[in-house]
Design brief:
By secondary structure, the chain is of the alpha/beta class. It is 40% helix and 8% strand. The two termini are 46 Å apart. Bound molecules: iron/sulfur cluster (SF4) (2 copies). One iron/sulfur cluster (SF4) binds next to helix 3 and helix 5.
Length: 434
């Protein structure tokens, strides 16, 4: 989607074209011959770029030297017209990022930062500019709703706080709650369940599977139930810093209320929040993603995996477990431990894994993103899994199951199953009963 010329502020009169021109016997009459004359001159002010670079966190946008390495790896550019280089150029040539739709498309997936020689850091730039836009009340409606629901209910799904542990009633195994442990504490493991695994039907499927797996392994665990609130990290990346701080303060107080050894989280976003952001606020305790926790217990888990899963399975690396935190192996170790399962890698995997579109607030911007791209990132990813002839797309982030299931339907690939690794492990453990 090229920008209209008037937006680029091209001075048309500066373009020199010869109606008739022969160079080395070649007729290059018309607009092509401008390359032999004076180049197009752009008239721009650096004001918009300076506005971004002046923000705490926005400085690095000014460091871009236009090498375009980021453009080749940005997931949005594959379905649209986007990359840090393009954002840099646009702000140089008159676009105000504070009011541009470009502000809300970045998913903070970090693939650009991985390759950028100048360390232009969209993970700092975007939240800094978005924070200002949030303060100005200039936020897409669907994102604003997620912010308001999080503030009111403690979760972006707008579900009642008191029902946060309601899912556990269907677990058929004990799911102890910290506040009810009485004399049975302390718990070895504090399992932070998360919002989507507590309320979303497909997230609940993974939670039920986790509860059964923890019980089968004899893990002494407990959850926080209605005392747990959303981690808030995705809201922070989408610009709602105040909301993040409020949630972090609440959660840290609850974490510190109880005695426990290790925290296990279901989602990569919580993993990132507690290890990298809550630690800045004074919370410094061991936190593991469930794939890491279970991979450490493979010796005990493997004998429980009785049922063969005869399927060709590909794995989607979550940006916030992989690129942001360097964990690529634990999920794969678990998948390889399941008998019968054939693991195939997609072309975009591990460090270069594609983004599902849910990070950085994208989870709550689907309609907005759809209006500004050719297809959703989740749809592109599903197509890739199908290109690799996978039967199952395995995931380990609670944002992804519903995103990819929707994408499988909307692209006409209903045959592709989307399952959390917890569900695959549980299926193998239960002898195919689940
Ligand atoms: S990789 Fe970095 S320096 Fe190169 S164009 Fe992209 S943002 Fe600019
Ligand atoms: S963080 Fe990801 S989505 Fe955002 S600009 Fe970089 S590569 Fe593109």
């Amino acid at each position: 989607m090229p920008r209209p010329l008037e937006e680029q502020k091209v001075i048309q009169s500066a373009v020199k074209e010869k109606d008739e021109l022969i160079v080395d016997g070649m007729d290059i009459s018309g607009h092509w011959n401008r390359m032999f004359g004076q180049r197009v001159i752009f008239d721009y002010s650096v004001e918009n770029l300076e506005k971004v670079a002046a923000l705490d966190g926005g400085e690095s946008l000014g460091w871009c030297y236009g090498c375009a390495k980021c453009t080749g790896v940005c997931p949005i550019d594959i379905v649209g017209d986007y990359s840090p280089r393009k954002i840099h150029r646009r702000t140089q040539t008159g676009v105000d990022l504070f009011t541009s739709e470009d502000l809300w498309l970045c998913t903070t997936c970090m693939n650009c930062l991985r390759v950028c020689p100048k360390e232009v850091d969209m993970i700092q730039i975007m939240p800094a500019v978005r924070e200002r836009a949030v303060l100005d009340g200039s936020v897409p409606d669907e994102l604003q709703k997620a912010f308001e629901d999080t503030a009111k209910f403690g979760n972006p799904l707008g579900q009642p706080q008191r029902k946060r542990a309601a899912w556990a009633k269907n677990a058929e195994v004990p799911v102890p709650i910290m506040a009810c442990l009485n004399g049975d504490g302390p718990a070895d493991v504090l399992w932070y369940v998360g919002s989507y695994p507590s309320y979303h039907p497909r997230g609940i499927d993974a939670s039920l599977a986790a509860a059964r797996i923890f019980n089968a392994l004899g893990v002494n665990f407990a959850i926080l139930g209605k005392e747990e609130k959303d981690d808030g990290d995705t809201q922070r990346l989408a610009g709602e810093t105040g909301l993040f701080e409020m949630l972090a303060e609440h959660n840290i107080e609850v974490f510190n209320k109880y005695e426990w050894g290790t925290m296990v989280v279901t989602g990569p976003h919580e993993y990132n929040a507690f290890n990298n952001e809550y630690s800045k606020l004074g919370f410094k305790r061991p936190v593991l993603h469930y794939t890491q926790f279970l991979a450490e217990r493979l010796h005990d888990l493997r004998p429980l995996l009785k049922e063969s899963v005869e399927a060709r399975v590909t794995f989607h690396d979550p940006c916030y477990l992989g690129r942001h935190n360097g964990e690529y192996d634990a999920p794969r170790e678990l998948l390889r431990a399941i008998p019968g399962l054939e693991l195939v890698e997609m072309g975009r995997c591990r460090e270069n894994g594609y983004c599902c579109g849910g990070g950085g607030g994208g989870m709550w911007l689907d309609s907005f993103t759809q209006d500004h791209t050719r297809m959703r990132l989740s749809e592109r990813r599903v197509q890739e899994a199908v290109e690799y002839e996978a039967d199952i797309l395995a995931v380990c982030c609670p944002f992804e199951v519903s995103r990819f299931e929707d994408a499988a339907k909307s692209t006409g690939n209903d045959q592709l199953k989307v399952l959390d690794i917890l569900e695959l492990l549980d299926h193998s453990m239960q002898g195919g009963k689940r």
